[in-house]
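Hi, here's the filled form for the chain we discussed.

Project: internal
Contact: R.S.
Residues: 136
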Amino acid sequence: MTDETEELHPAKAIRRFDIFAEYTRQERVEKGDPEDVAKGYAIWLAKFVANKSRDEENDTTAPENAPYSDPKWRWLNGEIQTDFEFDIHVLQRMGPEFYERIFMPAISAARAEGKKYEDVRDSIRETWKPAKKRKR
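And the returned structure, exactly as it came back:
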């Protein structure tokens, strides 16, 4: 790791949710999904699993009054899950530079080594802490 990347911090704490969503995105791209579809599926699945683990019901049907329906997107509890949702809830939350330069390559490396999500979900994010705010 270079000095430049050592100074790079996520904007917010990295969650298991983020790791799971990125693992899923990469798996879907590897299986041939276009990037936007892979992101939409990844955020849908991450939210679906998160709700299920909290014993919340998941409604995966499009609402009757939905403005449009595109078969490449999935619905969850009345909200369409698209690549834009992934970008908001994962990429933008941690910061695009951190995502591109640190997070995504680290997940790729773990997957290349054959590590499953469950093997790295906690250890991979141990050192990824948001930068401390300076006192004025």
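Let me know if anything looks off before we file it.
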